[in-house]
Each structure stands twice: as C-alpha cells, then as structure tokens.
Amino acid sequence: MSDELVFMMGKFEARFPTDRQYAKNHCWATRSGNAYRFGFSAYAVRLLQDVYFLEWQVDEGATITEVQEIGFIESSKAESELYPPIPGVLARLNPELMSDPSRINVDMYGEGWLYEIEGSGEKLLDPHQYIEHLASVWEVTQRTIKGQLNE
To answer: What is the value of pTM for the model shown?
Structure first.
C-alpha cells in the first residue's frame, strides 16, 4: 500500500492513502482513463459502519450535478442519500456492489469503489487538504454523532 495519512476519530484511526485525491463529501478519487473513480474514504466508512444496502437512482451515461441525488445507502448506523463529488457524466457504476455492498466495508480503497465520473477534478483536495478539512468539521461531526447538535 502507498503512504498513508491518519486522522484520529476519537480512539479510531481513519487511514487515507496519499496516492489519490479526496472530496469534501468524504469520497476518495483516482484517475481511471478520462474519468475519476470514486469510493468512500475511511472516515465515511467509519461513520456509516456496516453498509448493507445500496441503490442507484441514475443510470450510466447520465449527466449529473453536485446537488443531484444519485443514490441511497443504508448501514448499521445511518441512512443517507448519495450525491456526486463532482459534476459530469456518470461513466460507470460498480456492478459488484449491487449484489454485495459489503465490499465497501471490506475493501473501501479497492474493490469497494462506487462509480466513475467523467468531469473536472478541480475541486478535489490533496490528502493533506482533506485531513485539514476533517479537522475543521470534526467537532460538529462528534456532536452530531452523539445527538447533541443543538447544545
């Protein structure tokens, strides 16, 4: 495995390979031909925990925007709509996840990838910028996890 950066989520380590970029919505990104391949970062997987259901609301070839809901995920800790980290054309969905979304838990930086988007990666963060982003949102995230957002 490549070099990694670590962000401490309380007593849990979230590891981030430095050979890829990251998005503020907690996805990693690597170039795959003329597209970016995306998957959930260790931070997202730790918050979700055991993913057991995934559904896409768009088809391959669709033009998508960052504010467009493209799918839905359920896990032992959360139910959440999915939004793309960049606008573009949804080039490919990972077909293996439809029959076994637990691949996200087991191999988030490999076989657990989500989709590929043809688009500009100009808004993506390098690993150090992503760690800085996590540090800036961690306090609010902890309160949200504990159900204390309004305190």
So the answer is: 0.88
CA contacts within 13 A on the Cβ side of 47: 21
Residue 88 half-sphere exposure, CB side, CA atoms within 13 Å? 20
Looking at residue 25, its pLDDT comes to 93
For residue 1, CA distances in Å to 15, 27, 66, 110, 136 come to 11, 18, 30, 11, 27
Q: Fill in the amino acid letter for 124.
A: L
Residue-wise pLDDT tens digits, 47-82: 888 999 999 999 999 999 999 999 999 998 888 999
The answer for 137, left when phi > 0, alpha when psi is -120 to 50, beta otherwise, is alpha
Cα–Cα distance measured from residue 47 to residue 73, given in angstroms and rounded to the nearest whole number: 13
* Rounded CA separation 28/42 (Å): 9
Q: Backbone dihedral region of 28: left (phi > 0), alpha (psi from -120 to 50 degrees) or beta?
A: beta
